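Priority: medium. Attachment 1 of 2:
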């Protein structure tokens, strides 16, 4: 069974990463979600990646803050796409995690998204866009979602717009 794997460095990351899981639920896309840390449980992380690949993981989403090494650690164990979501916190409130996640050496990519809710949701969208390359039904759903987003902008505007 094809699915997307979400790995969070800590339970404290779930408050934001719930938005990622909710997005998969909305589109009825299979996902797994676990807590595993590159620092606190490196063996669990490594073993899980192998198991998830064998079970059909198509891509990995990593959420980590502070000295955010998790996405890089995942990338070192798999050639599946790795999407990194830096978490707020630490001495620069997430900028440190963002730079740790984005600055991967060549040949070892992590597609790094932004901090906060938008990053968590976009991680799910990016993973679904990867899945949709070989899933026509999901590709159609994603196109329909763009129309819904566009219509919402128009209806939101109508509620408050001022046009002369
Ligand atoms: C990282 O350290 C986690 O991903 C989390 O964002 C941050 C803080 O972890 P906790 O101390 O809240 O468990 O490894």
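Attachment 2 of 2:
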């Amino acid at each position: 069974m094809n699915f997307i794997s979400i790995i969070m460095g800590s339970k404290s990351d779930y408050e934001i990463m719930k938005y990622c899981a909710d997005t998969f639920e909305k589109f009825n896309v299979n996902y797994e979600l676990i807590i595993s840390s590159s620092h606190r449980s490196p063996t669990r992380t490594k073993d899980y990646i192998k198991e998830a690949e064998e079970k059909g993981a198509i891509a990995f989403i990593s959420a980590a803050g502070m000295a955010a090494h998790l996405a890089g650690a995942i990338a070192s164990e798999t050639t599946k796409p790795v999407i990194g979501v830096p978490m707020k916190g630490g001495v620069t409130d997430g900028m440190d995690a963002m730079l740790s996640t984005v600055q991967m050496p060549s040949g070892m990519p992590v597609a790094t998204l932004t901090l906060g809710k938008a990053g968590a949701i976009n991680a799910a969208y990016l993973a679904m866009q990867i899945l949709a390359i070989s899933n026509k039904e999901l590709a159609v759903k994603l196109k329909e979602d763009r129309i819904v987003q566009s219509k919402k902008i128009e209806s939101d505007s109508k509620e408050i717009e001022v046009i002369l």
